[in-house]
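Quick one: co-fold with magnesium ion.
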Amino acid sequence: MTEEKSPTALDRSDSRVRHDEGIIGAVRAFMDRIRSGDLGMLPVAVGLVLIATVFTSLNPVFLAPNNLVNLLFDAAAVGCISLGVVCVLLLGQIDLSIGSMSGLASALMGVLWVKMGLPVPLAILAALAAGALAGLVYASFLNRFGMPSFVSTLAGLLALLGMQLYLLGSTGSINLNYNSALVRFGQILIMPAWLSYLLAVLPGVVIVVTGLRAMRRRAEANLSNPGLSVLLAKTGLLTVALLIAVSYLNTGRGVPYMFGLFVLLVVIMNYALTRTKWGRSMFAVGGNSEAARRAGINVNRIRLSAFMLCSTLAALGGVLSAARLASSSQQAGTGDVNLNAIAAAVIGGTSLFGGRGSAWSALLGVLVIQAISNGLTLLNLSSSLRYMITGAVLAIAVIVDSLARQSRASHGRA
Amino acid sequence: MGSSQSTTGEPILRLRGVSKQFGAVSALTDIDLDIHAGEVVALVGDNGAGKSTLVKTLAGVHQPTAGSIEFMGRPVTLDSPGTALDLGIATVFQDLALCENLDVVANLFLGHELAPWALDEVQMEVRAWTLLQELAARIPSVREPIASLSGGQRQTVAIARSLLLEPKIIMLDEPTAALGVAQTAEVLNLIERVRDRGHGVVLISHNMEDVRAVADRVVVLRLGRNNGVFDANTSNEELVAAITGASENSVSRRRARKLEEMDHSS
Ligand SMILES: Nc1ncnc2c1ncn2[C@@H]1O[C@H](COP(=O)(O)OP(=O)(O)OP(=O)(O)O)[C@@H](O)[C@H]1O
Ligand SMILES: [Mg+2]
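Sure, here it is.
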């Protein structure tokens, strides 16, 4: 700043605004946000606690460390798909073919690897490329012909499923080698305890370091700061929670590498969405695409990136689930995969109406979905009931989303 | 019909025979317009005269059906808003075109964020505050979503955004329609400051007082056609006549009636 420092911070000159400082202020601001319909992660947190209590009371095995480890193994594949769904939902678009895409990717990888003898990395790359191509096609249909993604991806759902069946045609399913690195990654590879503890502490360290730097820069620029206590309290809570979770999992088998990969992808996506120009453009296009266009954003390119990311992540999910099941089959990607991935994103707090959401919603949502499916499996309930209950949970999530949207509108928060 | 000879040199923007059709509607027909550096051109006309359509054509939002546009002596095709912005043509749209789900800072810098791979939020926030203070903006917090702002506050944000990139030409489509007294004065001051810096300004307004206060030339559009260029000293009657297309019109009749009433009462 070149001007002399004014006594009040640059952003504190309007007397009408209550400025929340310190921990009490942070809590008060949080309550305000909730009341105005900006629910964030609250419904998920409540949902998870509810689910855990119900299932544990019905069958104590639910909370056993090794069951939770299994749950995390299962969550990674759908989680990846869900992360892609977040991207298209942010634009107010949808991809209904993610299930088929993941199935096709797993079939493609199985055929290329087992039947044609390609090295695994190449087979995986080919599957991911197929995903990128599908996304390219949807985005082109939308950009060129204005074809709603709802329709093009519905067509894609069938077309991709057809290709999957065609690829697997004669055999129906391909078994993957149990001793291969990929299947071990999908079934047994667990982080050593020291690594999992290190990774549990890392977020806290990163948050404090970047937080302190931001505070220093804000102070230099004569902007107000929410206060050190808030930063430390938040970080402390997070670190303690992560350490408890990790040490609990380590009393069982430990933290799966595959889940670590998924969380890493979530963190990268979160950075891209919140800290880059591309992420800003995604939110802008989702909020008001004409305004985004007039601001000079290439809306077509943003759509292209979102659809390609979504299909590619769906393909990656397919590869991971093939690794998890040690097979590429005609069933891969069918059934409730589609619904689960979309439901996870919405349950996690990404709006179906575009312009709101975060990468974390994929992580939180998929935990809810997997917890339900895992708990119901433990109760020996048939998949018919599982489908019904998951459907009901999705309906509730969408209702919460719609109500929160109305409430935000009346509180001026869009 | 007075034409301008006040400004010298090459115009920044030169339009010749620009037409725009929306299906069967001819919103613009054969428009000629020159905008020079360091001048304020007011664009006036009745509702539906085609002012916004003209501005949107120059902003790259609409493509003209016919005609040529020259920027700094070079023929250009404004095929997208991005192209126009890159050339240095900034616009405040009548409908503002802000993203309600994003906060003020994000809207100000939309499409031109600082440090695209690691957004520099602090720097952006500081520049946002400085810019808004220049406009005497009354905005409580730049970290609230646009949806929570009043109409006038939004308008200020839209104006601030157009200034951010140091454009060569800035086009304001009814920028003061929703503004308070102090804010309107600031915007008029600002228009003069921008002109003095040697930029061109296009101002659309229905408020003849504002127009007369800052404009160097007044360009009248009527039913999508040029209907005369006047200088700022032209009388109100003359302007109104050009805008409505006749000296005998509802405005002059109303004024005559008012005068008559005053005569009677005194
Ligand atoms: N996108 C569009 N599609 C079809 N017709 C349009 C479109 N935009 C403008 N028009 C028509 O073009 C004409 C000029 O409209 P324009 O918005 O330019 O008027 P204006 O001079 O800005 O009026 P106002 O003072 O009310 O803002 C109108 O007849 C309008 O109906
Ligand atoms: Mg208009």
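If it helps, Chain B touches chain A through 42 residues (CB under 8 Å).
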